[in-house]
Amino acid sequence: MDRRRFLQAIPASMAAAPFMRGVAFGQASIPAHRSKFKQAITKQVFGAKATTEDCCREAVRIGFQGFDFADDPSDWPILKKYGLLQTMYRVDAPRLATPPAPGSGPAAKPPGWDAIGWKEAQGDFLKACHGGIDTCAANGFPCFLLQCGARSDAFSLEQGADNAVEFCNQLKSHAEDKGVMLCVENLNSKGFGLIKTSLFDHIGWGVGVIKRVNSPRVKVLYDIWQAQLMDGDIVQTLRDNIQYIGHIHTGGVPGRHQIDDSQELNYGFIARVLDELGFTGYVAHEWSPSPGSDPIANAQKAFDIMNV
Q: 221-230 burial string, b = 16+ CB within 10 Å, else e?
């Protein structure tokens, strides 16, 4: 029985008593719950047709505090209007002076873009990340995204880790000075996404990088959907590594849809473990509604599941 139904089932005089952990049932003081998670969301959760205004209106009504990846500056005044934060910011590749011809495919990004495990990232992308930290600080955005890139035959996993450490070491003082959290995200190597073989596809590789960088402002963005595809063992991973995790993404397996009883992970249990571990970062929902489902109802249910 969850706390809300429990309180409804007992006398009002008892329900009004403060709850304190570790005090036996029936005593004058009953355990009080710690404050709830900071929850964020992504626009895709509300479906492809929802406008930014629609997303913000529903997010506030449900209780979310912000959006990950609301990276278009034209959206920021709308978020501000509703009292919402951009909770995870990333820098886009610079626009080409001459756009690619129709049918020629997407424009190539500069070498090393979104790939801190590549030596080439320590050029244009590193400069852009310094600018991104300043953007975060100027606008009150708490977190900045870093990704490690794909594996390559040109270098080993160990060399990729060395490159990622060197990249983060060149950013960490700036992030510390500005109070911005750099979040290094794990991605899967099963072909679900733009990268088919990710350098950071197992948590141990990324945690090793974070330990070597040794900064309170450089941590893992632990994407639970990605991690379940590669490693599973989500709860034990959280217990073993919570001090190195600064931000969390949710998503249902299979399909990367809503986190309800149509998928294999028990997010209610995961939420309780995060609560026990004292996690203070954002838990952000990054998935798309399954076909035919109600996006708003899905978002509400996801919030309630994690709102331990």
A: bbbbbbbbbb
Would you say the pTM of this structure is higher than 0.90? no
- For helices 203-213 and 157-178, angle between their N-to-C axes, nearest 10 degrees: 50
Mean pLDDT of 97-124: 78
Which superfamily, per CATH, for 36-94+109-306? Divalent-metal-dependent TIM barrel enzymes (3.20.20.150)
Q: Domain ranges in the chain?
A: 1-33, 36-94+109-306
Token pair recorded at residue 290: 């399954």
Say whether 271 sits in a helix, a strand or coil: helix
What counts of helices (H) and strands (E) characterise the chain? 11, 8
Tell me the H-state helices in 192-244.
Answer: 203-213, 224-230, 234-241
With a CB cutoff of 8 Å and minimum separation 6, the contacts of 160 are: 117, 118, 148, 149, 151, 152, 199
Q: Is the pLDDT at 27 greater than 70, yes or no?
A: no
